[in-house]
Amino acid sequence: PKGHNRSDRHTGLHGPEVLTEKSYNYKCDVYSFGICLWEIYCCEMAYKDASFADIKSAVLNKHLRPKIPKCCPRDMARIMRRCWDAEPASRPEMQEVVEMLEKLNTKKGHGMVPAGEPSGCFCFSIRRR
């Protein structure tokens, strides 16, 4: 990605508290998991065209988070947003995240696959060049 090097390639995964270089705890991993969940659902890397400085500034000063597609099921979007809370103490525990994910209705797609896409993991069915 543009402007990234080995050390900051996945800056978009880091919670705001990590970017400030202040002390942080395991809740930064909950934030990162929420970003990973978005990346898996969307089949792309968050902030892929942004520089480290731009990501850091926007996350810290403008509360930047990835845009959740309209086709994303409400419950899945809710999990992502809860994981991305700016306040670490307000993020769910990972056990709660697991429980919320287990409750998602994925039978016959139920919104997990965007309209017009084949069932199964749609990002792996896209032709790669």
Main sheet overview = none
Tell me the strand percentage band: under 5%
Helix proportion? 40-55%
Indicate the multimeric state. Answer: single chain
CATH architecture: Orthogonal Bundle
What is the CATH topology? Answer: Transferase(Phosphotransferase), domain 1
Annotation field: number of helices: 6
| Cα-to-Cα separation, first versus last residue | 18 Å
Radius of gyration: 15 Å
Q: What is the overall shape?
A: globular
Average pLDDT score: 82
Number of strands: 0
User: Could you give me the name of the CATH homologous superfamily?
Assistant: Transferase(Phosphotransferase) domain 1
CATH class placement: Mainly Alpha
Low-confidence stretches: 1-7, 124-129
Structural class: mainly alpha
| Domain module tally | 1
Structure commentary:
Pfam families: PK_Tyr_Ser-Thr. This is Protein kinase domain-containing protein. GO terms for molecular function: ATP binding; protein serine/threonine kinase activity; protein tyrosine kinase activity. The structure is a single chain. With 129 residues, the protein is mainly alpha-helical. The protein has one domain: Transferase(Phosphotransferase) domain 1 (Transferase(Phosphotransferase), domain 1, Orthogonal Bundle). α2 packs antiparallel against α4. The two termini are 18 Å apart. The N terminus and C terminus are likely disordered.
